[in-house]
Design brief:
heterodimer, A: about 500 residues, alpha/beta, Rossmann fold, 6-stranded parallel β-sheet, B: about 260 residues, 4-stranded parallel β-sheet, binds iron/sulfur cluster
Chain lengths: ~500, ~260
């Protein structure tokens, strides 16, 4: 996916003008928000569970070399192959090398955001391979030539009408087909692809070090077919996806579907350990795991951002984010969107590449609250803003303004002066002028901005409010005040 | 009990009447209210925008001003929450870190202080029959745990709390001017929901613990020339405030009619 992160301003404005895409995104996210709240609510102690999950992840990240080595050993013992890729290029090459050796022509893929990150599809197609996405949402996007806008619901932004039109054009489906009919049609079309594919490429939700297994979590069954029907299976995983033991999986299998779609469990959980064994009648003959770094080591070494590597890609922070809900995933300009994208993209690519994203938040804190692995996203957004500032990436005027703010607010005498200046009126009894700060133009596009109060609280305090029982509150409020002093309790 | 009021810079300049109401509410609850006159701002604008050196300068001034206060109470959850972020600003500066922790532990949002510390269950305001839309300030709710306290006090006045959209108002300090289109879209989502809530029976008042949110939502309401009036929750709860008095008169007129 092409890097267009610093176009966030333009892209988001364009999205805001498109009522259909906005509507689809709002409905989709709100649907999952409601379901997540219910599903979280069913757990006895969701906070303790999140804490446990975060602890497992932190422990693994602290000992990542050990667990990745253990995972590799166990996979190789079962006859699988492990490839380490330092960057996107190496990852693509690893997959292409397997494809070449296998003499492959046709590839089926189940959902993998990592494959978007390393831009795999383009590379495969360039090498002459036929690639078919098998996840319904991904399939729709592939047919449309689009990228996912959400890490869990890739076609989140697609209005139903557009999907109906697409299926009408491609498969002559009636324009009023139901979602189930569309899914059935897609299944029918894609099913043939599994049978003729040489390679199945899947993403990885978790990898269990002690057993050498990769785990996929899904609802459509397409990942299970992708990983079991073709003769070669290639699993892709970010290096942070490993967990130590099979019993650690439990807490994640409880949290992930609840956080993502509000399900107690997904329809399919596949735990795949190596290729087909001698005694097994079917299954892939080859199993490859491509473990991708692509900037993750840098994040691991960054104490303030390291915890983003806990992320299990549930998408809850996207759904709950009132900014994401308005601007959709594509505005973020790269694979990861929403709050986790605003942190992870600059963390992986460097702040220069993604300096706008940390500012795309009102810091409402919703993301930090719902995250099943307790990533302090709001704090990390502020940390990244601070880095953008210290790297000198902000407009000069803003930095100067902030220095002015700092000295104004750090010195009460200056503050008093400004307080008086804000209330200066040329004629006695004249109306207070509205402050003419340049940024207020932006504010006033959609909102009125109040004039400062006639008298500031500081002024009021000096003139009577400081006494515990002032004679009355004269001067406290506006002039046309028919209110009697004192307390009124009952209607008289 | 001695309480130092932190009016906040926004409150000082744009909402002094909320501060006056806060003083009356605290006094009515038996507090001796003090106002350290050297106070300015909590430093949040600079902190949230990433200018941490400038924020530190303001934070140091805040610590100096309020260090000797027994309790620090602000008619704002957001500024109260900012004081809790001081620890982040001073994490490599042990002496100031200790001061920051000590001050943060004694800092409260107004309704939180009234309910949680003073045990106030009701104020003397009578707002019976009034339909009130309460807006949760994100920082009050998520960083300070202020959710039930203002609602309980509002209910005790006899007001009816209407249910409506509970998301962020889109203010977010500098965010509102850096990304005005997104900020406005978030605001409009709330205002649309407010209109919907008033479809059958009008909503009388929009209120919140935070003036920032209210300037955003209220400024939007005024621009649309529509809907309820907006006022800080302190003024609503204070029976001697303008608005409370006016509402009271309206109620009385309704009762007589
Ligand atoms: S950051 Fe947390 S909430 Fe967001 S996708 Fe990752 S795990 Fe889910």
């Amino acid at each position: 996916m092409k890097l267009e992160i610093n176009e966030f301003g333009t892209a988001s404005k364009r999205f805001l003008l498109n009522q259909e895409l906005r509507g689809a995104t709002m409905r989709g996210t709100e649907n999952w928000n409601g379901k997540r709240a219910t599903a979280y609510g069913e757990l006895d102690d969701v906070e303790a569970m999140k804490q446990y999950a975060a602890t497992v992840k932190d422990h693994t990240l602290d000992n990542l070399d050990h667990y990745l080595a253990l995972l590799t050993d166990n996979i190789e013992q079962r006859g699988g192959h492990v490839h380490f890729a330092q960057d996107a290029h190496e990852a693509r090459e690893a997959v292409l090398a397997v494809a070449r050796t296998a003499g492959a022509r046709r590839v089926v893929k189940s959902k993998s955001m990592l494959s978007e990150e390393i831009e795999l599809n383009g590379a495969l197609e360039q090498a002459g391979l036929n690639v078919v996405e098998t996840d319904l949402g991904e399939y729709i996007l592939q047919m449309e030539g689009e990228h996912p806008s959400h890490i869990v619901g890739p076609a989140m932004h697609k209005p139903k009408d557009e999907v109906l039109r697409l299926f009408h054009l491609l498969h002559e489906m009636p324009l009023d087909a139901s979602v189930d009919q569309l899914a059935a049609k897609a299944r029918e079309v894609i099913r043939d692809e599994y049978l003729t594919a040489d390679i199945g490429i899947s993403g990885t939700n978790f990898a269990v070090a002690e057993t050498g297994s990769v785990v996929t979590v899904e609802n459509e069954g397409n990942a299970r077919l992708t990983t079991s029907v073709p003769r070669v299976h290639i699993a892709l995983m970010g290096m942070e996806k490993v967990i130590p033991r099979i019993e650690d999986l439990g807490v994640f299998l409880k949290l992930l579907p609840r956080a993502a779609t509000g399900q107690r469990s997904t329809s399919f959980v596949s735990i795949i350990t190596g290729p087909k064994r001698a005694e097994e009648p079917e299954g892939p003959e080859e199993f490859h795991l491509v473990i991708v770094d692509n900037g993750r080591t840098g994040v691991l070494a960054d104490p303030e951002l390291r915890s983003t590597l806990r992320c299990i890609r549930c998408g809850a922070c996207l759904n709950v984010c009132p900014v994401y809900q308005q601007v959709g995933g594509h505005s973020y300009g790269w694979v990861y969107s929403g709050p986790i994208g605003s942190v992870l993209n600059p963390a992986l690519l460097g702040i220069e590449e993604a300096k706008t994203l940390p500012f795309a938040s009102s810091l409402c804190g919703g993301c930090g609250e719902v995250c099943p692995v307790k990533i302090p996203l709001p704090q990390q957004l502020v940390t990244l803003r601070q880095r953008a500032v210290s790297h000198g990436l902000m407009a000069m005027g803003e930095a100067a303004g902030m220095r002015g703010f700092g000295s104004l607010m750090g010195h009460p005498s200056l503050y008093r002066l400004a307080n008086a200046a804000a209330r200066f009126t040329p004629k006695k009894g004249g109306k207070l002028p509205r402050l003419a700060l340049p940024m207020l133009r932006e504010w006033q596009t959609s909102r009125n901005f109040p004039a400062p109060a006639l008298r500031s609280f500081h002024d009021l305090w000096r003139t009577g409010l400081d006494r515990d029982h002032p004679a009355d509150e004269e001067g406290v409020d506006q002039a046309s005040n028919d209110q009697p002093p004192g307390t009124v309790r009952e209607p008289r | 009990m001695k309480v130092s009021l932190f009016i906040t810079c926004v409150g000082d300049q744009f909402g002094p009447s909320a501060g006056v109401a806060a003083v009356r509410l605290l006094r009515a609850a038996g507090c001796e209210v003090d106002f350290p006159v050297g106070q300015t701002c909590c430093g949040q604008p600079a902190y949230n925008a990433g200018y941490h050196d400038d924020a530190r300068a303001v934070a140091k001034h805040f610590l100096k001003t309020f260090e000797r206060s027994e309790y620090i109470v602000a008619p704002s959850g957001s500024c109260g929450a900012m004081v809790r972020h001081y620890a982040e600003l001073f994490r490599d500066d042990a002496p100031n870190l200790r001061r920051a922790w000590a001050v943060a532990d004694r800092t409260y949002e107004l309704t939180q202080f009234l309910v949680d510390v003073l045990g106030v269950e009701r104020t003397d305001a009578n707002l019976s029959g009034l339909r009130v839309a309460y807006h949760d300030s994100c920082h009050a709710m998520r960083n300070l745990g202020v959710r039930e306290q203002p609602r309980a006090l509002l209910r005790a006045t006899g007001a009816e709390l209407v249910s409506w959209d509970q998301t962020c108002c889109g203010f977010g300090g500098l965010f509102s001017v850096k990304m005005p289109e997104i900020s406005s879209a978030m605001m409009n989502r709330k205002l649309d929901s407010l209109c919907e809530a008033g479809e059958e029976q009008p909503v009388d008042i929009l209120t919140s613990t935070d003036l920032g949110c209210l300037m955003q939502l209220g400024g939007g309401l005024e621009r649309r020339a529509l809907g309820p009036r907006w006022v800080h929750v302190a003024e609503l709860l204070d029976p001697a405030s303008d608005i409370s008095w006016e509402l009271h008169k309206r109620n009385r007129a309704r009762a007589l009619a």
